[in-house]
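FAQ
Q: What does a multi-component entry look like?
A: The components come first, one per line:
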Amino acid sequence: AQSVTQLGSHVSVSEGALVLLRCNYSSSVPPYLFWYVQYPNQGLQLLLKYTTGATLVKGINGFEAEFKKSETSFHLTKPSAHMSDAAEYFCAVTSNTNAGKSTFGDGTTLTVKP
Amino acid sequence: NAGVMQNPRHLVRRRGQEARLRCSPMKGHSHVYWYRQLPEEGLKFMVYLQKENIIDESGMPKERFSAEFPKEGPSILRIQQVVRGDSAAYFCASSLRIAGAQETQYFGPGTRLLVL
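Then the predicted structure of the entire assembly, as tokens:
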């Protein structure tokens, strides 16, 4: 079984401030972890993913995430927020035993204040 | 290189009618996944199909919902006798091979179904 918890359904930051979106997962087998961004009335776009190897993963638009097995976390960060980062962000988990079936968190809406 | 296509983008149905949602995967992709997103929630897996085969339908409601991915043409998600609780955004994703570590699922823009 696998699950994802995103802490904080809404996060608000000022432009230029650090963005931190939290994701904790549960998986009985080694997980593969993903972050997606969704703009209003659009589909999901992959930001980054962790499969194996380096635990610090860099993605598009300056985002990165670190896989911490001991904390079962995969938090998403960006050093300096832009107005264009305002969107909904989803963390997802899958595994080789659940291939094809991603489990998503409920999402975090990021607001960026000028 | 077109991405995943879904149509219609918006669909309005009255209770009891049928809804047909179409998904054309990316060129060369033979794996299709359907997800449902209820308001204020994340995506929930519904079904995973390959050409002419349903691989995993563990997320599909037992009644009124069906999916297919024929040899030719798009994948279809069919909802019979819709009820208000079916109102949601339905997303399709595709991958070249089975999605997992090495394969990314590419998502379509979704179909927003509203049941009156």
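Q: Is there any commentary attached?
A: Sometimes. For this entry: The longest strand of chain B covers residues 43-50.
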